[in-house]
From TrEMBL:
InterPro entries referenced in this protein's UniProt entry, alphabetically: Ankyrin_rpt (IPR002110), Ankyrin_rpt-contain_sf (IPR036770), GPIID_WHD (IPR054471), NPHP3-like_N (IPR056884), P-loop_NTPase (IPR027417)
Repeat (ANK) residue spans along the chain: 537-569, 570-602, 603-635, 636-668, 669-701, 736-768
Highest taxon listed in the record's lineage: Eukaryota
Keyword field: ANK repeat, Repeat
SMART domains cross-referenced by the UniProt entry: ANK
Origin species: Rhodocollybia butyracea
Pfam families linked to this entry: Ank, Ank_2, NPHP3_N, WHD_GPIID
Domain Nephrocystin 3-like N-terminal: 62-223
Residues annotated as domain GPI inositol-deacylase winged helix: 319-402
The name this protein goes by in its record: Ankyrin repeat-containing domain protein
Amino acid sequence: MPSFFKHASNFSLNQPVMSNIEGDVHVAHHWISDQVPAIRNWLNPPDSSVNFNAALETRTPGTGQGLLSNPEYLKWKNGGETHMLWIQGKVGSGKTVLSTTIIDDLNQTPKPGLVYFYYFDNRDNSGSKSNYRGFLLSILFQMAISQDNLVHPALHKLYTTCKKGSMQASLTQLENTFALVAKTAIQLDYIVLDAVDECTHASQVMQLLDSYQESFCVAVTSRYPANSQSCLNIQLDEIEADLSIFLNTRLGKQNWTPSLHKEVQKALLKGAQGQFRWVDCQLTILEKCIGAKAIRKVLSKLPRDLEETYMQALERIANGEQKDDAYHLLLWLTYAFEPLSIKQVEDIVTVDLEKQSFDPLDRPGDLTHMLYNIIDSALVIIGPDNIVQLAHNSVKECLISSHNLGLSSGLLEFNEKLANEVIAETCIIYLAHIPVDSVFHWIQFPLIFYSARYWHAHLRNIHFKSMNQRTKDQVIDKLLDDKKPYIESWITFCKPEMHWSKAKLATQLYYAAAAGLTHDVHQLLQSGYDVHAQGGRYGNALQAAVVGGYEPVVHVLLEHGAEVNAPGGEYGTALCAAAFWGHCNVIGVLLDHGADINAQCGHYANALYAAALKGHQGVVHYLLDRGAHIDARGGECETPLCAAAFKGYRDIVHDLLEHGADANLQCGHYASALYAAASEGHQGVVHELLEHGADANARGGEYEIPLCAAAVLGHGEIVHDLLEHEADANAQGSERFITPLYLAATEGYEDAVLDLLAHGAHVNTQCREYGTALDAATLWGHGGVILALLEYGADGDGTQSAEHGNRFSREAAERLKNEINGEQELDTDLSSSAVKHLSKEIIGLEIGNPYKHLVNNSSGSSESPSSI
């Protein structure tokens, strides 16, 4: 039975969020008081507060005053005509610290606006801090979570739409939610972006922010000039005053003579060329010198720029006793797929590549001392949360630049191919030396998860012919040998098998295919492995290779006789797996080798259904062109059209309809594509379906009709679209004869209530034992809905259900009165006029309520609902 009273357990009369968008009054429902941790885990936004706090700790008091007093900055800060402030400065000029200074200044200045910020950071090899999505996730989360730890209703709705975190939100969904949150702001807020030049999609970031000039004042730092002429510009050319403050502070901590102090300051200011980073690197070296003679020797050989500074640091490494460890670690920090902790770094340098061994007893003791003893601090730092990272993005740029591929200093060659080989080999050795029966692997061996997840990814980045023989042998002899325990370590911690057990261990061939190792697959087949062998999560080696999108492996397996239509595995067939993961090239290979395009695939029905369900528009097109049946049945949603509608993929819905999909085909649990889209809140899909002839009154589904589903779930725009396409405003859903108006009133969705009333919904319809819409609204204290219903003629004294009706009106009025006068018991039954009076009284107290202007004035007149 449907639950028609979802808010019954958390009744509240909180202040609504108000906004006026394009002339229409919109009421966003109450900020949600729970689920912040769940939403944070779901979005997983990059945490820029780490960068902020790190920069704040390095900021020298007194610096940045030149910027804060700059007329352009003050004009921007005070909300001038230009909303964008662009601060340009060369590499190492202190832009990150200046961004932090701006944020700190805005937070300490009395003003109505809020401050949001983001630090782009290329040093994070996961890419989350250098792409558009990471920026959007972080800013949206900051905006949509209040200082009281409440969730904006737009973000909560997105969370609900995405099955409470079981699905990842698309970029379009995130942008739409950002728009809703931005438009409900009641003041001009600030966004500060640092190092936008390190963003891989900087144009998308700027395009988004340009669309909200009325909502935000935006400050940007970059090494490059602004593309737009419509922004305020500040060039960081003259920063000698800040450099002097910085130098005086650092040098003041040294027990040097005044003359030596001046000598050092003069030399560093002369060579700085406006770069704090260069000065900081030289000071780090000078502070280690013993005596004036050593200091003057360093001053006499100061590097000309940052690049030369880093080259000198690399030369010091090359001349050190642990140059191999340092070199390998630099390769890891530059090319690893994830940030590395100090504990992981400890195990990286403990792995002995020459002896092919790893012994935990060989770990160094003092981790910090160990790190800075083998690598110059000009290159590497230990950041917040004990994350080891390159000291600055310019270090990474220097290391990977083409003219640094070969170093005459004796340091080994530095390039991506060698890095992938070193990292892969380190991971394999590490996994091969982990005891499989240990319970606390992840505590005792902190590098194990990285090793298990990524060793094969690093190997795939190397051309097999260029791989050294030692690495080739290790893959077959160690990790892929199903007669040895090493493969168990990999599977256990990589989890390519969701429910792995020793009894279900697949073949060596299967895991080589799952890892995308073409040469190893070929070698194993040549040695006699059965290409048809069953086992593993994906059933066989072919499906395992298809899931990863490893086209060369798929070719090898098919050439050795793999059955292209073999049933089994998680996706039923290899073709369905390829469609689910969007591997269009692999789909072509499979079809060219005789794959049945319409084969049934169990849970995912067929290839077209799987592609539609996952939103792969290109795959949908390709499958249709190759002859896929457009209305083939199967799967939870029954048809490809219903699957795409349920997920909200409007473009795919459009394509399927244009190719002849039946818009009114029944879809089992979801009744129809229209019902699925309406219940999930996908307005664009609803519009597309209605324009292609979907029946707005088709029956089926939990709430029986699309209009009831949209009304109870708060999709006001969809309610309007359905009504405009002749949906019956008085249709009754379910065996309890609940109307759309009653459901919207129960949940407090004022916009839907007004739309239904304007389209002829009967205001006094009895919903069996549940009473009328007015009973529901008054019971749950939805003040705006109460008044809207009364203004449309709702009868508070009408015939009520014996089971619930009179109690509804009495209890509701008592709640409303208690909100005003405190806990007072009512002595008599309340008439319609009493309910009406108390309703208006409590509504009049709601700050910013859009129906406040409807409360009777002294002459007893009121505006009509049509004027809203």
